[in-house]
Amino acid sequence: MIELNDIAPDFTLKNTNKEDVSLSDYNERAVVLAFYPGAFTGVCDTEMCTFQDNLKSFNDLDATVLGISVDSPWANGGFANKYNLEFDLLSDIDRSVIKSYDVVFEGLGGIDGYTCANRAVFIVKDGTVKYKWIAPSPGEEPNYEEIQNKLKEI
Fold it and tell me: Is residue 1 part of a domain?
């Protein structure tokens, strides 16, 4: 299990343009990893739109937001287009990243055998986990103010 001050597992995932994006690409900035269960689902829509609405604040804090789900680049692309999301949504289609961050959720929406990301937020700076929040259930949103306050500290 990933804990505060652990080395963050690096990864390379496809964005909505099917380009590789690696966590290590952002070593000079803080990175907000926002794991979400699925595009076009109520709470995920609200969460990603809230990150978008606050994107200027995150940028002002020298932070990059990356959304991560098990959805395909095409589904994430449709999701990003619908809500005009200006940050990368990454596709963990083989579920390796959700496993390495220990945010696996089984049976979303009562679908047996369906494995997706639980809702979770990590802040990574200089390759180290500086903040960790994992939802008790996927229906709960993170505390956006707490995330911004943590970014101000680091």
Answer: no
